Amino acid sequence: MQEANMSRRAMLASLGMAGAALATGGIMGANAGSVNESVYGAGTAYIDIEDYGAVPGGVTDCSAAIQSAINAVQGGLSGTVRIPKGKWKAKNLVVENCTIAFDDGAVLVLELGANDNGMLLRSNTQLLNATFEVTNSASPPDGNFGNVFRLGNYEAVPGEVHSGIRVHGAKLYCHNTVRKSQAVEILGQVSDFVLDDIALYGPFDAGIIIHWGGDVGSSNAHNKEVTYSYHPHDGVLRNIRFFPYNGTAGNFGIILSAVYDITVENVVFDGWIRPLWILPGDVYAQVATDAEKTKVQTGIVIRDLAIWDPPARVSNKGAAPIFIQGASATVRTPLGPTYTLDSISSVHVSGVTYALSPGKTYSGSPLLLVYYSSGVTVERVTASGFENVAEYLALVEYSNDCRISYAGATGAGSRLYGCINCAVDARTTGTTSTQTGGKSGLTAAGTMLNATLTAPLAIGAATVSLSAVSTTLTVPKGHRIWLTGDKSVMIAKTIQLSATAPNTVQIEPAQVSESSGAAAVVKVVCSGITLTGSYSKWEQGIMLSDVNGARVEAQFLLNGKYDVILSGSRADNIRIDKSSFVSGGQKNNGTLLANVHLGTTGDRISVTSCGFEPQGSPLVNRHIVGSAELSNVSISDNDFGGSTLEPIAVGPQSAAASQRGKVSIYGNTCKIGAAPVAAGTIQGRYVGGSFHGIASAAPTTGSWRTGDLLVNEAPAVGSPKGWRCTATGTPGTWVSEGNL
């Protein structure tokens, strides 16, 4: 317990003064005796609910009496309704143009049925120092009901706008034995609202939901087709705490569904299952008002979250403690699903602390999931206590233009899958188990779908017709459909490809043509990704599997088998640059152990300006090793320091690979007396259109061109100076340039 307490104190310190304040009773402090003066003001008149017939004790229904007091304020008798010390039973209170202030020790007791709320907060309302105790006798039919308090309306009516709402210093206690209601909903046409210094206790199914509203109807609201929608905006959630109550915590903490310009800061989740869920809703792209259509899921800023002891959950990646989704969960209009991949999106999350106390367990989902999203940044994430958890720390799938940075590790590392133009900066150290247990600190991978063209493709075409797709999958825009002869077209709009029905895919104007019946491959692979940071004590530091376009600039230390490995069916356009490799090969089991393993078919790959330091007797048996099917590879300007190894062993290339382009090896430094490359590997580079290198003999394999030149790497009197190719071929015709 002492270690857990110390961990939490450290986390609160990381939240700053506001975090410390909220953990010790809130911004108003544990002694809120001065609240009355600060709320009412010196000499301010107020209306006391007892003067309107309210009876303390929490048994008598005081709804009518309290509503009468509120109505009196709205009628201009005073500016503040006072809730005195004691328990007061009420529900379905409507508050507008009014301040309600609770004395210390004042509690509103809510016994809510399926169609009840505690309070409806409308425009120009303040709720100060409130305490609620809620019990729900039945689950509500939709988000319009079952709330401690609600702002706005799920069934949003044109012209019904709510703004200028402030809630400060509230405590909400849930007395339910099961999770079946939400604490707070903010719905539809609501703007200019602030919730500050709020604490939620116990098994709420959801804590705070900020959600679009529209013409959902008064019944079956979750399923009705929608023709217009409104979206909460210009709101702040600040200094919010989510705690267990009587040993039970809540489910969802904060849900942001189809909102914009929302700030959330200084929030603690203690034991809640799904602290933060951000999604685009299911209507806005088609039916939002013109003023809001391009704004939804933009301007979302989340700062300084502490997630303590998230519990194990049923295995489901969508149950991640932080889940940022860019795809609509359901479809409420005839036009089909919406994706932030196809529109402007801006979500910025920073300063997240995950902590798992000693003796606690976690399983069931990654800690962070970014799914079918674009424009998402998640940075300054730290995770401690999860090193032996068999789940991903960060999982980013089918997303574009996202940035993720974190420090820490789980037992499964992290993964990018089918992502475009994404960047990950990780500071991750595994364990002795991950060092030899087949795990990678970071994996970038993807998939490929086979298909057939069902109509001719003409140059300039804006669509392509596909059938017989091997797997049903939603494919984000930006991925490519590859045709015969290395021709391709780019997908212009995210589409769910069907394996059983014909597909018409929107593409960028085609620059190539293709005949009907031709084979096609939809490659949903990582491309344009950037991977930085440090990776230590993993069997593989970084694995790139079926990747087309990646830059790696990182530090690698004490990894088990490979620091960087290219795998899968192929890897192209890979640049490993300005990286350091120290003390690899810790698995030390007699197998191939290499800093960089170019272990698949690939084209246009470079390893440049890197430093390799074996730290004493090397455990790796090669620094850089590559397959015979690599082409247009450049290994240059690397420093192999004091290594005693022959550092580079790539090839010899197959005839097909060498015809596409040679492996260029030049400008590398190594220990005096050490061979720079292994036997059979040729050093050299292109000069103009010819390859110039050094070798021990004229080639007998591979494709060579007229003008290629190889100098004898072991010159001696009476031996050839070198060899020149005089006729292109495999291996071509080679002529000695004469003896020394």
Automatic annotation (TrEMBL):
Source domain of life: Bacteria
Assigned keywords, A-Z: Signal
PROSITE patterns reported for this sequence: TAT
InterPro entries (UniProt xref): Pectin_lyas_fold, Pectin_lyase_fold/virulence, TAT_signal
DNA-binding found in the keyword field: no
Annotated signal sequence range: 1-23
Signal as UniProt keyword: yes
Name of the protein: Uncharacterized protein
Organism phylogeny: Bacteria, Bacillati, Bacillota, Bacilli, Bacillales
